[in-house]
Specification:
By secondary structure, the chain is α/β, with parallel strands linked by helices. It folds into two domains: about 120 residues, Rossmann fold, CATH 3.40.50.1240; about 70 residues. Helices cover about 50% and strands about 15% of the residues. Strands 3-2-4-1-5 form a five-stranded mixed sheet. It is elongated and about 80 Å long. Keywords: Membrane, Transmembrane, Transmembrane helix.
């Protein structure tokens, strides 16, 4: 399943209601790139986010033939810095139209002052270090509570949650992390049990 990074392209004609709706859907890590104009500044203030002004987004009367590609490169440069954050671009309507033609020619624009397009991205990497640490903690807790709970209960719950997250868009990496942690906990648990059999009283 292909995952997409959300790019919100906003014209300086966006009204307060449009800006407020966008603000409500933005993630906290969203990056805002804006034209250095008073109209764009007003939109950015409505979003309540810090912005990165760029002169390339400023309106021009006679655009160069490669302006669209330079706009595309600008947006993608900000996008690849963190492929799992939203990117907001604020510019005049003519610049927005030109940007959308190059950035996402295969996606239909909404026709309104705010257009959302998606850039394909790979899956979020699984934090193997955190998974290994989590596995060790899970094994310790499972063995520590073995007199109160069946030893299979906590691992079974982790497995169920992990499998459920595998089918949730944008949360697949969490499911993979939990399943890797579960595997690590089983290895640690087996080693601990084997050690306690070899050296009675270790646990």
């Amino acid at each position: 399943m292909t995952d997409y990074q959300r790019i919100h392209v906003v014209t300086t004609q966006a009204g307060a209601a449009d800006v407020e709706r966008l603000r409500a859907h933005l993630r906290s890590s969203a990056v805002v790139v804006t034209a250095p104009t008073a109209e764009a500044k007003q939109v950015v203030q409505g979003l309540g986010r810090d912005a990165h002004p760029d002169v390339l987004l400023a309106p021009v009367r006679f655009p160069d033939v490669d302006r669209g590609h330079r706009l595309d490169a600008l947006v993608r440069r900000h996008a690849v810095e963190d492929r799992f954050c939203d990117v907001v671009v604020v510019a005049d309507p003519a610049t927005v139209v030109l940007l959308l033609r190059v950035l996402a020619p295969d996606q239909l624009a909404s026709g309104g002052p705010v257009t959302e397009v998606g850039l394909p991205r790979g899956p979020r990497p699984v934090p193997l270090g955190q998974a290994a640490i989590g596995g060790g903690v899970l094994a310790f807790v499972t063995l520590a509570l073995s007199t109160l709970l069946p030893v299979w209960l906590l691992p079974a719950l982790v497995a169920l949650v992990g499998l459920a997250l595998l089918v949730v868009p944008g949360r697949r990496y969490l499911g993979q992390t939990l399943l890797i942690a579960l595997g690590a906990s089983l290895v640690v648990g087996l080693l601990a049990i084997a050690g306690s059999d070899r050296f009675p009283g270790a646990w």
